């Protein structure tokens, strides 16, 4: 520890202790930086995007630029687990399915080819064989089976990063709501909290999820197009005698179904006898005044559960639902960049993870730490994640497969 510091002076202050901020604080502390991690609510709270029982991890994306982040994250999940001594990542295969002409699914296949990800394309009959009748797809659909799947335990993972950050010397403070970040001459950045506390940092990383748009607007006037959505995660009861067929460790995959709506799920893990199947999407919300559900369960989701699992899962209604916040960008791509302006490279932001960032949080923490410390991120292309893309085109990155992007608000 550098003795030239007062108690509220740090090398880097990380604002927001969800998975991204906690992963970043771990990376910074591990590199010997005097690090402060601030959270506006209790640590491990349920008001944001980083709590709950499971998240999928997969390498199959229509956008090929996610593969490097996922690939690095697989290694870093294993590494962090080995440092803490318990598991947050459980292996499974990944299975993607959809109409054989769905552009986004065809893009998944080309991503696999481009990145040499081993995969198999299966027709209706081969899918029934491959999964012993547990999954049934229509005759005009295809399935893509890939070894690189798995489940992450989210709350446990956030706790792991916080414990490892602490173990490496980071200072952790919760129930501290940051209200302003200002340049303060020689002292670097002045970070003020609503309770009157003030902290100084040479650099600052902002990872506040659904609160990103409000905080960034307050800090520098930039209006980022990051819209919080409240999403509803559904658990369905597996019928008697079939529970073990859909459980993790039994060769049942994490899965995604392309088309309208886009559906995803995990094998039975956290609740015995229940399987998680949900729609990717939700309703616009104010993160401070959320409706807290109950959230609609579209008929299309019930039909999907009934048909894909051949009646082995009760599709009448989910037995349980949980709520979570997505921070959506118009193109569903992340925002990882310097704030710029008067802050130059001193303030780094990571947000807009659009419901698919959790799995990549170990790599994103490494990247945000790199940006804060050396002003660039090694070995990764971040041009798709710049703030400036929205000035060039309000919809952000152009996608060839509009069938997946922007369907959220219309499908539900």
From TrEMBL:
GO molecular function: flavin adenine dinucleotide binding; sarcosine oxidase activity
Record's catalysed reaction(s): sarcosine + O2 + H2O = formaldehyde + glycine + H2O2
UniProt domain FAD dependent oxidoreductase: residue ranges: 11-371
One Pfam family here: DAO
Recorded superkingdom: Eukaryota
Co-factor requirement: FAD
UniProt xrefs under InterPro entries: FAD-dep_OxRdtase, FAD/NAD-bd_sf, MTOX
Gene3D superfamilies registered for this protein in UniProt: D-Amino Acid Oxidase, subunit A, domain 2, FAD/NAD(P)-binding domain
Enzyme class: oxidoreductase
Keywords in alphabetical order: FAD, Flavoprotein, Oxidoreductase
Protein EC: 1.5.3.1
Family indicated by similarity: Belongs to the MSOX/MTOX family.
Name used for this protein in its record: sarcosine oxidasee (formaldehyde-forming)
Organism: Gossypium lobatum
């Amino acid at each position: 520890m550098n003795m030239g510091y007062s108690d509220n002076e740090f090398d880097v202050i990380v604002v927001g202790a969800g998975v991204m901020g906690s992963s970043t604080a771990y990376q910074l502390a591990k590199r010997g930086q005097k690090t402060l991690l601030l959270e506006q609510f209790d640590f491990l709270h349920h008001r944001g995007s980083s709590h709950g029982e499971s998240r999928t991890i997969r390498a199959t994306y229509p956008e090929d630029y996610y593969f490097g982040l996922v690939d690095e994250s697989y290694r870093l999940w294993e590494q962090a687990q080995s440092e803490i001594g318990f598991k947050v990542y459980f292996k499974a295969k990944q299975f993607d399915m959809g109409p054989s002409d769905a552009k986004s699914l065809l893009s998944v296949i080309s991503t696999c080819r481009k990145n040499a990800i081993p995969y198999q394309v299966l027709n209706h009959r081969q899918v029934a064989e491959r999964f012993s009748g547990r999954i049934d797809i229509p005759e005009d659909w295809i399935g893509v089976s890939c070894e690189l799947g798995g489940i992450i335990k989210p709350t446990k993972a956030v706790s792991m990063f916080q414990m490892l950050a602490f173990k490496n010397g980071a200072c952790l403070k919760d129930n501290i709501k940051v209200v302003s970040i200002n340049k303060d001459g020689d002292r670097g950045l002045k970070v003020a909290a609503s309770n009157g506390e003030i902290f100084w940092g040479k650099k600052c990383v902002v990872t506040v999820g659904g609160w990103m748009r409000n905080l960034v607007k307050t800090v520098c006037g930039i209006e980022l197009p990051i819209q919080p959505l409240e999403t509803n995660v559904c658990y369905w009861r597996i019928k008697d005698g079939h529970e073990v067929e859909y459980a993790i460790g039994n060769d049942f995959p994490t899965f995604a179904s392309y088309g309208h709506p886009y559906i995803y799920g995990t094998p039975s893990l956290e609740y015995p006898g229940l399987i998680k199947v949900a729609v990717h999407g939700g309703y616009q919300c104010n993160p401070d005044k959320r409706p807290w559900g109950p959230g609609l369960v579209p008929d299309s989701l019930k039909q999907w559960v009934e048909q894909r699992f051949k009646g082995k899962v009760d599709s009448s209604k989910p037995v349980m639902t949980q709520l979570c916040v997505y921070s959506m960008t118009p193109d569903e791509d992340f925002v990882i960049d310097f704030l710029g302006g008067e802050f130059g490279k001193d303030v780094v932001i990571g947000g807009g993870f659009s419901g698919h960032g959790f799995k990549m949080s170990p790599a994103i923490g490494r990247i945000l730490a790199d940006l804060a410390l050396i002003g660039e991120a090694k070995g990764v292309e971040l041009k798709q994640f710049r703030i400036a893309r929205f000035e060039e085109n309000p919809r952000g990155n152009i996608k060839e497969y509009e069938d997946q992007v922007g369907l959220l608000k219309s499908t539900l």
